[in-house]
Amino acid sequence: GAVVSQHPSWVICKSGTSVKIECRSLDFQATTMFWYRQFPKQSLMLMATSNEGSKATYEQGVEKDKFLINHASLTLSTLTVTSAHPEDSSFYICSAQRGLSNYGYTFGSGTRLTVV
Amino acid sequence: GENVEQHPSTLSVQEGDSAVIKCTYSDSASNYFPWYKQELGKRPQLIIDIRSNVGEKKDQRIAVTLNKTAKHFSLHITETQPEDSAVYFCAASKAAGNKLTFGGGTRVLVKP
């Protein structure tokens, strides 16, 4: 079945530094990648949607200059949290969709980010 | 945009009993309704989904019903087992390339 590999699974960084999270679709081409953030005991909140070769579309309230998304190929999308602060500590998870159908969203395994 | 509400937020059942979780959505154009099970620190795991051209779908102990007119859908788990304990999320999306909007989640505890 479809697999999305997400790395790292957890990361601890110092306040003010940047962290890059990668999601790779291993056996399919991810036309669209969704990036979610999940705070403890809360739901998944969409941060942005990216299509290969295009600029990402950010949800209201999400700073595009802080959360940089790159989807340069059909198998790789990255999220960079720039100038991270403790309030950015969260569980970040990607979800890939193949083709032009809403048949199936394949989730990465998530990244636990802790900013100290 | 789409808004998905989910109830209850917590649900405690005795092993062997049934559990029902309900969701409502706001956008009548939504046509895909998946349910996910998420364990602590893990990715959401699809357990069942339903499309708007179907009213009910069943897979062993799990069933989902959809009422398009009322814009609500429900998850039914029968003969619950301790391993069913997790957080369950409903979601909705409406077209190709569209995002999934999640409900707030239901924390299910199955007591042995």
How does the SSE layout of this entry go?
The complex is a heterodimer of chains A (116) and B (112).
Chain A: E1 4-7, E2 10-13, E3 19-25, E4 30-38, E5 45-51, E6 57-58, E7 67-73, E8 76-81, E9 90-98, E10 106-107, E11 111-115
Parallel strand pairs in A: 2-11
Antiparallel strand pairs in A: 1-3, 3-8, 4-5, 4-9, 5-6, 7-8, 9-10, 9-11
Chain B: E1 4-7, E2 10-14, E3 19-25, E4 32-38, E5 45-51, E6 56-59, E7 62-67, E8 72-77, E9 86-92, E10 101-102, E11 106-111
Parallel strand pairs in B: 2-11
Antiparallel strand pairs in B: 1-3, 3-8, 4-5, 4-9, 6-7, 7-8, 9-10, 9-11
Characterization of this structure:
The complex is a heterodimer of chains A (116) and B (112). Chain A has no helices and 11 strands. Chain A has strands at residues 4-7, 10-13, 19-25, 30-38, 45-51, 57-58, 67-73, 76-81, 90-98, 106-107, 111-115. In chain A, β7 and β8 (76-81) form a beta hairpin. Chain A starts with a strand and ends with a strand. By secondary structure, chain B is mainly beta. Chain B has strands at 4-7, 10-14, 19-25, 32-38, 45-51, 56-59, 62-67, 72-77, 86-92, 101-102, 106-111. In chain B, β9 (86-92) and β10 form a beta hairpin. Classes of the chains: A mainly beta (116), B mainly beta (112). Chains A and B meet through β4, β5 and β9 of A and β10 of B.
Keywords, separated by commas or semicolons:
heterodimer; A: mainly beta; seven-stranded mixed sheet; four-stranded antiparallel sheet; 11 strands; 0% helix; B: 112 residues; mainly beta; six-stranded mixed sheet; five-stranded antiparallel sheet
